[in-house]
Amino acid sequence: MAEDTSQSKPASLTQADQLYRGFPDFSEWGKLSPSDADLWSRFAASLEERRREASPDALKAAVEVAVRAAALDTGAIEGLYHVDRGFTMTVAMQSLAWEQAIEERGANVRELFEAQLAAYEIVLDAATQARPITEAWIRTLHEVLCAPQKTFRVLTDMGWQEQELPKGQYKSRPNHVRLTDGTLHAYAPVDQVSTEMHRLLEQIRTPEFEAAHPVLQASYCHYAFVVIHPFADGNGRVARALASAFFYRAQSIPLVIFENQRPAYLDSLRAADLGDFRPFISFFLDRGIDTMQLVSESLITVGVTKPEELAKRIADSVLQKWNGLSESELRAISRRILERISHDFKKKAELLEHGPVVASTKQYRTAENPRVQRTFGEGIKLILDSTTQLLNSPEPNIVIVAHSSSPGPFPIIIQADRNRDKLDVRLEDVYPELTSHFLVRLDQWVQRQLGFMLSEVERDGNRS
Description:
Blueprint: H1 13-19, H2 34-53, H3 56-77, H4 85-92, H5 98-103, H6 109-128, H7 135-145, E1 151-156, E2 159-164, E3 177-178, E4 184-185, H8 193-203, H9 207-210, H10 214-228, H11 235-251, H12 262-273, H13 278-301, H14 307-320, H15 327-350, E5 357-365, E6 373-386, E7 397-403, E8 412-416, E9 422-425, H16 436-463
Antiparallel strand pairs: 1-2, 3-4, 5-6, 6-7, 7-8, 8-9
Helix pairs in contact: 2-13, 3-4, 3-6, 3-13, 6-7, 6-11, 7-11, 8-10, 10-11, 10-13, 12-13, 15-16
């Protein structure tokens, strides 16, 4: 099965319509062997045991990992973007820098993922609320899932063209696929789509279907929907979301098919097209068990504190050891020092006899790297300007940092990023107040920064 990215030539459309044979009734669908049913039950019981031991928040978080994995890879299966297992799990687990990782995959990947995620949330809501599957609901699912997709590729007499994708509407022209060997794979003709969709919904409402195993329900509904291919594009994504409804109802899990499982997925669909449904049913059995394992393991993982949180807590703990000071008190010390630097810098510039030079400062947020050192979250930028000439002046960033290993006798450092001149500071020199000894040292340090800046201005002037 592939997303509808090609169409047969118009001369072949009538022939292709005649090739359509429709999907089987559910009574013709295969069965699960007793051993397969027992295998499913074993993993379902294990997952249920883990659920009983987990908190509601942990359970919700574990299921969301599977949902995000399903939502991300469903688009990759259709070639909308590329993923690998590491990237998928980074996004699914919302690991460190996952948002940056998804942005780096290219334009629209984030939009497509969020739309697909919203579609799976619709399926989850319908399953938990026991709402019936209707044609209107399926059209809404398509509309939400394909919301960011503006166009789709169509093969016409003029060659390949991009056409606007109608969302939430059944196809208005054939979407039969020409295979690599030149033969046609026929989907439901346009004038039969409504009839076939109605027949599918009748099948999934029969007592036999409603009493069937979730693997049989999900695999049958998915296959029948793909055979019809009711939309111009997006049918594969809708089919996988639709199949998830039956896994949700039975085990509160989605259908997760990873992009690297696509070859086996397509092979099992081809076998079903030839009348052998067993490979497709087995594929769904395996994916359901895989997803139960994923959720079970996620329940363990969500109970363990994330490494980045542990690193931050360790750094915080080190900071809080300093004479029992809280982090808020340490931040207050940092602000007091920065205010004094700003004051001294402006004052020294005002006292310059030759100029006039105007000094100012600008506050900014700082990045934190607890593995090496810890900033207090803010710094200042030193700025020089002139009212009489254009100054090409450097603008050093000044930050207050703290050692995150051992505080030692000088736990605080004042440093500028434009030079290696740093000021090591004892805690008692700045707490509970800035001492005279410290202010003398700071005054000289600020004077050096001003000197560095003016030297750069002079050097730049000589070069020009």
